[in-house]
Amino acid sequence: MLEVKHLKVEFISHGKSIAPVDEVSFTVGANETVGLLGESGCGKSVTALSILRLFPLASKVRLSGSVTYQGRDLLTVDDADLRAIRGKQIAMIFQEPMTSLNPLQKIGAQLGEMLRMHTALSRSERDSKVIAMLQRVGLSRAEQLVNEYPHSLSGGMRQRVMIAMALLCDPGILICDEPTTALDVTIQAQILDLMRQLKQEQGTSILMITHDLGVVAEMCERVIVMYAGQVVEQSSVRDLFDAPAHPYTQALMRARPALDATPGQRLTAIPGSVPPPGMAGAGCRFAARCAKADDICREQMPALTEVASGHLARCWYPN
Residues 49, 110: one domain? Predict the structure, then answer.
């Protein structure tokens, strides 16, 4: 469905170039859920935005590589063709619905605009489909909600509205940028159940961007682990949890709260922080935080190589 090859995103400011995403490659298959995992600042959201070129007009961005969907490179198609793809064939659910919904427009008008842009439905047909989709995502009083503004809805309801908007035109691929981050755990579970159900009904492929290992385990078939703008590990979910190969992935696993932890037991933290874009050294970008690092790790960048069947890792000493 989607193939990203050697994607590099550079932001240009004051004559200098900074690349928060550097040589990222992965695929998303038909009716597959792929997780994009990593800490904040690893380049996950920038990768997602670059697929549909959703950058502010004022930004100076240089994209290289390719993002192929149905035989077309989305990095080179013109703006008119890309607008026809956005929302209709590839849709995106953003992390914070309150900043993604227009606060000055009613819910029904915002959802109806999606159908007006991408379909030839009449006004009454659009209204009926909007109400039906809101009901489908679990909003019982849809007839009243279409006449309300986003601020009058709870966080969970706004996220359901965003999901309804993304699914209105039956897209082939759904990009979810941490869709449950701002929600409490009960609403998180409801939203994930809803997305799983809609995927089964519509056969939609999902790219799930998250830093939550629980979401990855519950939703995904394959996982791409990112660190400092690069893919450092890629495998099936089972292999990733059973035998993580990269020290960064292993550190993420150790940092999870344990159900059998004793009262007062401290969490295992990863020392240091993700290097800012453009500040990483010549070698492995995780070397400064890795207990296994030696001279070659600090001086030479390891390649992304296969450590087991279908399991890739970017490390000189993978387990």
Answer: yes
- Quote the pTM value: 0.89
Q: Which long-range contacts (CB under 8 A, 24 or more apart) does 139-145 make?
A: 139/164, 145/107, 145/108
Domain co-membership, 126 together with 252: no
**Helices marked H in 54-205 — which ranges?**
79-85, 97-100, 107-118, 123-136, 142-145, 155-167, 185-202
Question: What is the domain range of residue 303?
Answer: 233-256+270-319
Q: Are 88 and 171 in contact (CB under 8 A)?
A: yes
Handedness of CA 239, 245, 250, 252 (dihedral sign): negative
CA 184 – CA 48 distance, rounded (Å): 24
Q: What is the CATH number of the domain that holds 64?
A: 3.40.50.300
pLDDT tens, the chain, 319 aa long: 899 999 999 998 887 888 999 999 999 999 899 999 988 888 998 999 999 998 877 678 899 999 999 889 999 999 889 988 988 899 998 877 677 888 999 999 999 998 998 988 899 999 999 999 898 888 888 999 999 999 998 888 888 898 888 888 888 999 998 887 767 788 788 878 888 887 888 888 999 998 888 889 989 999 999 999 999 999 999 999 999 999 999 999 988 877 777 888 888 888 888 888 877 778 999 999 998 889 999 999 999 999 998 999 999 988 7
